[in-house]
Amino acid sequence: MAAEAGPGAAVPLELRRERGMVCVEYPGVVRNVSKMLPTLGGEEGVSRIYADPTKRLELYFRPKDPYCHPVCANRFSTSSLLLRIKRKMRRRAAVPGAEACPKVMFEMEILGIISTTYKFQGMSDFQYLAVHTDADGRHTSMYDKVLMLKPEKEDFFNQELPLYIPPPIFSRLDSPVDYFYRPDIQHREGYNNPTISGENLIGLSRARRPHNAIFVNFEEDEVPMQPLEAAVQTWKKVCTNPIDRKVEEELRKLFDLRPIWSRSAVKANISVHPDKLKVLLPFMAYYMITGPWRSLWIRYGYDPRKNPDAKIYQVLDFRIRCGMKYGYTPNDMPVKTKRSAYNYSLPITVKKTSSQLAMQDLKQGLGPSGMASARKSTSNKYKLKDSVYIFREGALPPYRQMFYQFCDLNVEELQKIIHRNDGAENVCTERDGWCLPKTSDDLRNAMSGMIRQALRSKRPALFSSPTKADAGKEQLTYEYVEDEEDDEEEEEFKPSDGSENEMETEILDYV
Asked: What end-to-end distance do the CA atoms of the chain give, in Å?
C-alpha cells in the first residue's frame, strides 16, 4: 500500500493472519542466503527443530566440518509482525532557478505474523580443529586422514596418525554463571583429617545415608536374623501415619508369601513412595550382593543356600543382544532404555519443566481432613506394572536389560528348564545356584526365541528378507507397546535411577 502521509500520520494496512512465520535472529551479516541456510541445517533441519519445542536451533559456522561445535539459539514465543517497506523516489521536472524536490512515496505491506523467534544469546562452544602441530611449530591438517569420504582400502586404516579423539562437547553451558565455592571448613585447633579409606573415599563432608541395610556375600557363612537397631529406629521415625503402617503390613505379607523379592517386584505389588521404600526394605530384609540371588532382598533368617526350594527365586540377568549378526541394526531397536545420554541437559536441548508432585515431608503425617482424598490419590500412585518383573510369552519386556526371578518366568517351557533337576539338587554353586550348569544360558536362549516371535508378529518388515540371523541367531530386539498415558506415569518412578546395572544402583542407594 502506497502512502504519502506526513510524519506521525497513521496508515491502514491489511493484516494477513493466515501467514505464520518463524524468525531467526542470525548472529552475522547475511550477504548470501544460499550459504547462510546450510549453517542452520537447511530448510529441513530448521523445520525439524521447529517441530520439537524442546530443541534449540543449532548454527554451524563450518557446516562441512564434522568437528564443528554449534552455537545454539533459544526459542521464544512472540507476537511480532514482518513488515516490508519500499521507499520510492520520483524526481519532478526541474524548474529554472529552483532546486529539484523529489517526491518520496512509501509502500508498506505486512507479510505475516511471527509467532516464534530464535535468538542466539549464548556463547559458542570451544572449537578443536583436526590439525596436528609438529615439534617445530608447523601445522598439518588431518581431515583427509581421519575422514573417510569414500570406500577405502586397508592401508587407510593402518596408517600411522597422531592421536586425535576430540570430545563431542566441551562445555555443557553456553552462558556464563557464577560458581559459588563452598568455604573451607573451620575445625577446632588440633583437628587432623582422617586418613583416606574406603569409608570416606567419596568425600570427607558427605554424610552417610542412614538406611542401615545389611549386605551379604554368597561366601559368608551365616545370614542376619534381624535388622540393625538403627534400621528399626529409622523406620519408626518415618512411619508416622496409617498409610505407612498399612504399607508395612503389606510388605510383611509379601515376605510371608515368598521369602525373596526384587525391589521392582515390590514396587509392582505395593504403592509406596520410593524414598520410604529405601527405609522400609532394610527393616524387613537383607540384601544379597553376589551369587544366584544377587540384587535381591531376602527375609531375615532365611538362607537360600541351605534350602533347595529357593532355586525358583534365583535371579536371571537378561539382556538384548544387538548387532548386524542378529539380523538388525541398533537403530531398529524399538524398545527404550532405562536411561539415555539424550536425557542429560546439553546445550542443544531445553530442559523440560516436569510437573512437580506436591509431596509432604516423609516425617509429616496426614490430617484427618485430607486422609480420604490422599488415600484415593496415592492408592496406585507409585505402583509399577507387573511387566517390570514378570516375563510372559508373546509380551515384550519394557527395558533392554531385565532382572527376572525364575518364579516370575510365566512360561511352561522355561519352568521345565528350571525344574530339570528337581529332587537331585546336591550342591549350591555361586554361578548356577541349585540348578544344573548353564541353566541361565538355556533360559536366555529360549526367551530370545520367544521375543523373536513376538517381534516378528509386531514388525514383520524386519524379517521380510532372509538373513544370517535366521539360520542360527535368535537373539533379537523387542518392542515396547504401551499407552502414552501409562508410559508418562511410570517415567518418574523407574525401576532404577542411576545406572544401567540394577544391582549397582541399589547398592549406591545405601552407601
From this structure: 74
DSSP conformational letter for 399: S
Q: How many residues does the chain have?
A: 511
Per residue in 84-118, pLDDT (tens digit) is 888 888 776 656 665 667 777 888 888 888 989 99
Q: Residue 477: its pLDDT value, please?
A: 37
Distance CA 286, CA 213 (A): 7
* DSSP for 26-75, written as a single string: -SS--S-HHHHHHHTTHHHHHHHHHH-TTB-EEE-SSTT-TTPPPEEEEE
Please give the pLDDT value at position 188. Answer: 74
Beta bridge partner(s), residue 216? 288
Euclidean distance between CA atoms 32 and 42, whole angstroms: 14
Please give the backbone phi and psi of residue 145, each rounded to the nearest 5 degrees, phi first.
-100, -25
The answer to whether residues 165 and 145 touch, using CB atoms and an 8 Å cutoff, is: no
Eight-class DSSP state of 218:
T
Place of cell 506436591: 358
Cα-based angle 273, 275, 280 (whole degrees, multiple of 5):
90
Query: Which of 20, 135, 130, 118 has the alpha carbon at shortest distance from 77?
Result: 118
Per-residue cell: 326 = 542378529
Judge whether 149 and 87 are in contact, CB under 8 Å.
Answer: no
Instruction: Please give the Cα distance from 238 to 212 (Å, whole number).
Output: 14
**Nearest alpha carbon to residue 334 among 178, 130, 131, 482:** 482
pLDDT at 435: 94
Look at residues 78, 108, 86 and name the one whose alpha carbon lies nearest to residue 15.
Answer: 108
Beta strands in 98-219 (DSSP E): 103-119, 131-133, 139-141, 215-216
In angstroms, the Cα distances linking 231 to 213, 281, 459, 482 are: 7, 9, 49, 38
| Whole-number Cα distances in Å, 330 to 42, 165, 176, 465 | 27, 23, 37, 18
**E-strand spans in 301-454?**
315-319, 391-392, 401-405, 409-410
* Stated pTM of the model: 0.54
Encode pLDDT of 465-502 as tens digits.
544 444 443 333 333 333 333 333 333 333 333 344 55
| C-alpha to C-alpha distance for 121 and 191, rounded to whole angstroms | 48
Q: For the chain, give the mean pLDDT.
A: 77
- The cell numbers describing 253, all together, are 505379607
